[in-house]
Amino acid sequence: TPVKPRCIGEQLQCMEEKMINWGDRREQLDRVRNLETNKVEECLQACDFQSVDIVTSSSTYPSSNTFPDRNDFCLVVNKINRICQDKYQARVFERSYAGQFSCSTFPVKTFESCKNSSNEVFTTEEVERAVITYARDNVALVKVFLRDPFFTQIARDQRITFIQFLGSAGGLVGLTTGFSVVSGVEIFYHLALTITKICKR
Description:
Layout: H1 10-20, E1 31-34, E2 39-42, H2 71-85, H3 87-96, H4 108-115, H5 125-138, H6 162-177, H7 181-200
């Protein structure tokens, strides 16, 4: 099998520079091959700044009304079954829930119906209470939702061009001092005459 190249040592800095300049046309990093369409497409430049807004919410899990009808119910039952089959784990399990329930609380029929993944699980109210109690102490359901990524495209442009600057500067000078192009030619003409007269002397 061919050895895949790896970035080590100074190559890591080189790779970091490539990642920062990803999408930069001057660095010729603005093209990438789309593996799905097998076409070379334009690659957008990497963002200079990324922000993530985090919103969290929580609720009681499991719910005693819906948990017996969920697939998670059998997952917990199978876990309890594995615990009860090991004498050491079963001892700790029954000590932790002494006075509430024990391994004998769960009939074999319940374990078998969950193990076979049957649609109808054999259960009783006592079994449901025991499973829900164990799940609340040992199970947490975490769901992570990521928003669709978006970016703000900013176009850079000159606020004023050189020609516009000359026009504005000439207009301001003409407005405030009465200076014009003709005045500039006259000043140059009189300076030239003065220098000529001085040189003749």
